[in-house]
């Protein structure tokens, strides 16, 4: 069944059937009811993409994210809430850090499946973003090298520098930090390593920092495997509160006491860090999520804005 068959059965033109489907004016109530009755009787389901193309709008925001990770939970929840307030649907687009998958999602703008695209993770495909910015609004929640793409982000690089500076001033020199991706694949990791080296010298992978660490179970297993037979560092700076919670559990299993034998710092300011009482960093995801939605919905003109993260110290002895 298609529009032409609906038109033949009702004795009207394809244009009239299209106007009824798209809820446009200039169709009499009698004709509208006749077309809708045939659509219901035949069970015809209009092609959503065709409708979007005819309207030029889908009222849908696409949001890329690496995968379903607690690090993005507050940001995604903020985007969902604000989109709902603006009468928008949200399509979550997991990329798994693969550029080809990200590029495939860009075609959704061209097809009018989505009206706009919010990027929560980085890719090297900057040129593609700039070209597709003509197809719909695109904005990043992380800082990009190119200033041609709008961005509202948390100044993570500055926060890393402040954190390592404070640790240096506190005479904490034995520090280990974890990341998910290596320096070559992640700008955030590159910034973190660079900030570390400003105060503590050359950062060596496998000694000063460890990659591919993400999630409660992996954090716990990493600690048990790495520090069962050697001295633990003074400070663990962990990428994500959920991962930090696993690290804490692993260290407790080894007989160490938090804020006595070691200092633990997570990221995200989630319930994990609050309940387990370890330090963390708030990257202001709620505010960023709200503003990127307002931008793509045309309610906010400013498109290059940064927020200062907050280091939340919990140092109870």
From TrEMBL:
It comes from Vagococcus silagei. SMART domains: HTH_LACI (SM00354). Residues 1-55 form the HTH lacI-type domain. Keywords: DNA-binding, Transcription, Transcription regulation. InterPro entries: HTH_LacI, Lambda_DNA-bd_dom_sf, Peripla_BP/Lac1_sug-bd_dom, Peripla_BP_I. It holds the Pfam family LacI. This is LacI family transcriptional regulator. GO terms for molecular function: DNA-binding transcription factor activity; transcription cis-regulatory region binding.
